[in-house]
Amino acid sequence: MKVSANSNNFPDSQGYLVDNGKQERIYKGLPASGGIAIGPAYVYEREEVYVVERILSPEEVEVEIQLLDDAMERARAELGKIVSFAHEKLNQDAAAIFESQLLMLDDPEMHKALNKRLRDECKNADFLIHDELEKFRVLFGEAKDELLRDRMADLDEVGQRIMRNLQKKRLHSTVEGEHVIIAEQLTPSDTLLFSRNDVLAYATDVGGITSHAAILSRSLKIPAVTALHGASREIATGDLVILDGQHGLLIVNPTEEHQAEYARKIERIIRLETELADLVDLPCETSDGHKVELSANAEFVNELEFIITQGSKGIGLYRTEHLYIAKGEFPSEQEQYIEYSEIAHSMYPQPVIFRTFDIGGDKLLERGISELNPFLGWRGIRMMLDKTDIFRHQLRAILRASSMKNIKIMFPMISGVAELREVLAVLEEVKAELTEELVPFDEHMEVGLMIEVPSAVFVADELAKMVDFFSIGTNDLVQYLMAVDRNNELIADLYQEFHPAVIRAVKSIIDTGHANGIWVGMCGELAGNPLATVMLLGLGLDEFSMVPSVIPEVKKIIRSTTFEDARTVAANVLRLPLATDVRAYLDTHMRAHYPHLRETLRNGVNSENGTHRNHEDNGDQHATL
Q: Is this structure's pTM higher than 0.85?
């Protein structure tokens, strides 16, 4: 029996009231993906690949090299199928996780190194792969950068896949019937492949809310709790469990009271989701007539249909990096033009804002490039200004696709006036080229920039005079304002979207933009957090761009309030000194004015949780802005 807040068919709640005579146990972890699930546990133990060192004869070495090539080819085919499935299943950029694994698998340097070791050392291939992984595990394990540890997890999964194919073993990420999967740890492939079955939720001992498994859980809309520290060893397959992905709770052998309480919560959530579906075609305006735009963040063409069904009035952020990630190299102008044109035609007459390549940071860097601190390194517009040929190709493709006049463009990681001048100069040169070539384009296409670097906040007045709009990227802005790596679990509680410094920076950006006659949007995760909606509305935000599935909730809140009430809420928030005070005030306001909505805040997993100690994330994606 499927019991989940994401379920479309909610059975009689009495069906869960099973008194099994066992004592209730409650585990507290990190909320990785919102939602509620009730059902039997399935304890999943991943079969590890064990290797034994063997010495090969010269004749056996050549055979072993061929076996390694065959194993890699099978691994490539497996990953190719997973990537295809990911694109079909996911509406977010989570499929890029598997694309990056394909790039690792196809790395010619890895092939060269393994073949050399095989010939020099005359040892079996699976042992050498295991040995290489151990070296990287030691190296990455000492790294303080959470991003490097995530990359180690990807590398380890690729290596395990090759070794399993060498040993001709199959991995079974499947389970019959509806279950809550309990495991010490889930790989990205486990997370995706289990979703083919009737999985209700995931609970893991190990992992953080920015891990790839957590990102995929959110993308798949499967409730998940992580960092349960040994719970999998104390739970048996078949135990009845309740998983609360909003508060990070796993309740084993729940009492009848807890079963009934959570069954009622699920009923309310499903009732509200039905109500939200009726809002799709209604305008996004407050009850006293103040209008704002609700847009979607997107990355793939196959997301567009879902975006439209959620009531989005355009795309406020279209990420273009996947064109690079998918190929392992920058796409041609024509390849880009074809995709950009298809998106513009599909969304017409609604606007589409293309962000130029934002490679680096938490996105995949070029092969051979390694930085100690990629978030403060060669990324975003910095890379494009060094690679002007690639930058010009992208600008040409976007401009050529703009003939329907519903395309806008924005630049990431702008840190100051000099940088923006250089960018706009390149844009004008490209426009002049197209004009000379008699290639039509929208000569009045709006140009904007992302405000995500603190220096840009302080020179926003000068920047606003040079562009048509700002889009606030809160993910990086929070990270840089707070000096907190948002992928580092050790300081995750310091990553606070509701910190007064962040709220005041947002207010300053909006006011500066309006003073210069330009509109201001937001495409970071804060824009899709229903708890922040009224505050952002009151701060004067003109456009909210978010994960498409959250649009109905945010629209419901906006249509249920007045602009004057929102302005009062924002003014009160601006006087508060602590992030905990801001969250408490907004939570109290939400409970008082929208109690039915507060119950369903999937994006309660969007910043600090109720204890104000765990960073949470609504999962765009992940950490992509």
A: no
